Amino acid sequence: MDNQAEVRAFLRSRRDKITPEEVGLPSYGNRRVSGLRRSEVAMLAGVSVEYYTRLERGNLGGVSEGVLDALAQALRLDDTERRHLDDLARAANTPPARAKRQPVRTGVRPSVARIVEGMPGLPAFVQNNRFDILVCNPLGRALYSEMYADPACGANTARFVFLSPAARRFYTDWERIARGAVGALRIEAGKNPYDRELSNLIGELSTRSDAFRVLWGAHDVHVFREGRKRFNHPLVGDLELDHESMDLPGDSGLIIAAYSAAPGTAAEDALKLLASWSAPSEAPLDTEANSES
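Above: the chain's sequence. Below: its structure in token form.
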């Protein structure tokens, strides 16, 4: 990824979202910008117009933590956006020749695979920062059966969201899921600008999906933590499930994700039905490689 282009587009997109009235500035004259002027951001951040112009042109070289704090306040960045700005600044201050991309595991430790397999009543899987599902238990495969049935997805949930016709039916809140996926990929691109496989995935989705390309152009960021998702499963119908994502210490870029249904709900009954449907096959744990790499 081009760090300067990312910085330039991100700062400009945040500036465009804020009106003078929102930050207590008077609005006068014929404004040719949709949000704040550069001079207004510079004033709010306490830096010169020339210096802010340099930053917005993508040059974060040598920028201090204090200036980043001031920019975050001036542009009203939330915590996720601020961390993304930090990632962009860190990449800008690491010469490409010395930049060391942290490797993303292509395999999963056997102990982690056993944890996923040991939750037969919950759809659970291990995913990397490129949305590849590396290990998935039988109930997880049953939940995402349409993704696994589509060879074009390659057990990648981002490809499923944007490239599979089934996804818009499967995700009841498809637009929210799509925005979240794009925002999460942008976070990862900021953290790992030299991850070629990540860049290739983003390029593929930009080329093949108009929806992805439009959302990518918004430069929004997102972090998946916990929440609730609604599905329309082809076998059991509507499902409203809580999800949790947990980072794996020592395994950079890997998370365990699991879904559960609130007790006494229709979703709990549907999940039990789905579990009974997936149990007779006694399918082995889906994993391409469950050894350390």
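The beta strands are 124-127, 133-136, 226-233, 237-247, 255-260, 286-287.
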